[in-house]
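[recover] target loaded
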């Protein structure tokens, strides 16, 4: 697990313990900076620092939930190069901002999820709250927690997680209907 001191200066938002004893990390896109004028760019030094902190915690896999079109030009390439230098693997699972996973993203996740059952991994979207929080809650549901319990656990780790009612309703009514409480 990561401490607040270890994540200082990074876009890491939360570290969430899983019932398996492992954990997952919610983070904003490593190194993404948006200037006051709205211009976005990726700072390679922050990208590297973030990946180093994740590596120090044993995280070798980063699920990238942001869509390439919402990132600054070359941003994904900066992340991919920095990850490759550290032996880390990126897994693109793009979800539209403020939205929920499409069936192809869920199918891709389900094809790989067993390999993440007992080891730490990171989730990143643009800011590290909405899609990362949604996906973290989804993983907790798959781990056996009730949807509302999962949402509460993720929000207790980062209060801004799961940004809207659509995401909440998808977790409770669509992804896991009939299991709203324990």
């Amino acid at each position: 697990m990561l401490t607040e001191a270890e994540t200082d200066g990074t876009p890491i938002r939360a570290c969430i313990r899983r019932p398996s004893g492992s954990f997952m990390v919610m983070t904003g896109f490593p190194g993404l900076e948006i200037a006051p004028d709205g211009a976005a760019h990726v700072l390679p030094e922050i990208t590297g620092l973030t990946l180093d902190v994740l590596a120090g915690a044993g995280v070798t896999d980063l699920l990238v939930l942001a869509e390439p079109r919402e990132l600054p030009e070359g941003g994904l390439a900066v992340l991919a190069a920095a990850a490759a230098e550290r032996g880390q693997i990126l897994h693109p699972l793009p979800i539209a901002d403020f939205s929920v996973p499409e069936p192809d993203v869920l199918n891709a996740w389900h094809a790989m999820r067993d390999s993440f059952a007992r080891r730490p991994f990171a989730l990143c979207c643009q800011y590290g709250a909405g899609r990362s929080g949604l996906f973290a809650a989804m993983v907790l549901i798959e781990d056996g927690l009730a949807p509302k319990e999962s949402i509460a656990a993720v929000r207790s780790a980062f209060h801004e997680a799961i940004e809207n009612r659509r995401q909440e309703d998808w977790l409770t009514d669509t992804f896991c209907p009939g299991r709203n409480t324990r």
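[recover] notes: Residues 44-56 form the longest helix (13 residues).
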